[in-house]
Records
---
Amino acid sequence: MHDDLHLIVRNLESTDYPQLKDLMDHVYHDLDGAWPKHTIDKLIHDFPDGQIVVLDREHIVGVALSVQVDYQTYSNPHVYDDLIGRRMTILNNDNGDAMYGLDVLIHPEFRGYRLGRRLYDARKDLCRQLNLRAILAGGRIPNYYRHADDMTPMEYIAAVSRREEYDPILSFQLANDFQVKRLLGKYLPEDEKSHGYATLLEWNNILYEPYDAVIDSRKTQVRVGAVQWQMRPFSSVQDVLQQVEFFIDTLAGYQSDFALFPEFFNAPLMGLIDNSHQQTDAIRFMAGFTERFRDEMSRMAVSYNINVITGSMPLLEGERLYNVTYLCRRDGTVEEQRKIHITPHERKDWVIQGGDQVQVFDTDAGKVGILICYDVEFPELSRLMADEGLEILFVPFWTDTKNGYLRVRHCAQARAIENECYVVICGSCGNLPQVEALDVQYAQSAVFSPSDFAFPHDAVMAETTPNTEMIMFSDLDIDKLKLVRSEGSVNNLKDRRHDLYNLKWRQP
């Protein structure tokens, strides 16, 4: 046992060759031993970052050798000799968009310390740093010879995948998030234990971004802003719009990518009608201003260079009334999302109808969805959105009591966890005694994240002071969502049992 280990990870150097040769000769005694020195020197010259060693003090105890390759070429059938040029030189493609893992070796006396995982993690970090598409490898299956008489290679691979059989190379690769893409025949003919077969393995870099012009590149750091709106009487429509513009201007001044308003934030307009106690008349009166608010808030989105989610407003189509929110992009385009599930109060007192579509919207700051208040309490909607790549879910809400608010909050937190996305909720506070059924409000706006190590310990990114008019900001890292979906402590999206159940939208 090595009780006084002092491990160092660094790049391989030409002067390391004598130690490297000893290690390769020892491990590859059945496969012609070590590469010649000129082969290793050329690898170091062509792709120095890809040659990684683990040392115990000054002694090499582990090594990972890699080259850059063209993904399209080496993600298809090939043999090991395709990587080899004249005089045993390994062909490195400086313009390659993938890494190819040549060798990983651990000294037998140092096995059990997870040094192989340490080398693989270093490779993955390098792949991300270089913005390469994937790591590819041809993986030997050295225990196959024990089962060749009663298993085909694919049956053996399946048994190893199910952990019914153990293979020192394939089992390790699978444990390090590599996937078997295909079987390679005659990959290394001299490998008698594998009968010449190998698996084509791939680790996908989920952070890979194709090289586009900077102006077209996707944002990975997104700032969201929300307005916890104070309900109070207004004397005119213009007064409400002036207050809206003040908040949009303020949020834009802090370089926010989004501005979110609450559900029915312009409800004070119902106080401008003489018979405001007649709820159906008041809500339809308010609906008469919705198109103006949509158009004005779209203008503000462009003018202040910020994407605006307009809270929600009543929309009258013929004789049917809907609860509608708009996404006003800063490029001038406008999208609409109608509330799907209507609360008993909305249905009974305002005669509001439910919408029949839910969708995910592409923006310059990620894929977003909007669910209005009660809708977030139905997990099917956000799960359908997650299947379309949802990254940020916006939830404008209106609640009058704390227990109503907590229903929205707790369900929103659940949606963030189960769909591995960010959720932003935004409500209103204050009193509006002149408007029937909207006289009191309760709100604490917040931003929720998945619950994993990359995020706050309580999965709350930001939250406001309860029942106080204020604005709230939160910076969201979209790349963290990709990582948690692929490499998180749990994988709620990946681990669904599609063999047992599925979810489909039934068009009306």
Note: The chain has two domains: 7-204, 218-487.
---
Amino acid sequence: MLSIVNANYKDDFKIVIEFNDNRKGEVDLKDFIFNGKIKPFKKLQDVEKFKKFHVDYTLIWDDNLDLAPEYLYYKAFERDVSLKNKFHKWGYI
């Protein structure tokens, strides 16, 4: 089962994430937060609130806002063609 083992805020709305398969990547969530359709995440438009996440299997913010580790993995490695089948199986492409 995929999970996040470590994550560090980088800048703007970017987080560097290390997954339990030893892959490390950068996720930019700015578009998701500002243009996404999931209203509870709009409160993270304040970068100071965005920075206040913790890791417990995945990224979690106040009010138990979280994102699936598979989605974060996809966002970190979406350009990696070797992962295309995995992303298709998960429903992201």
Note: Helices lie at 30-35, 47-50, 69-77, 84-90.
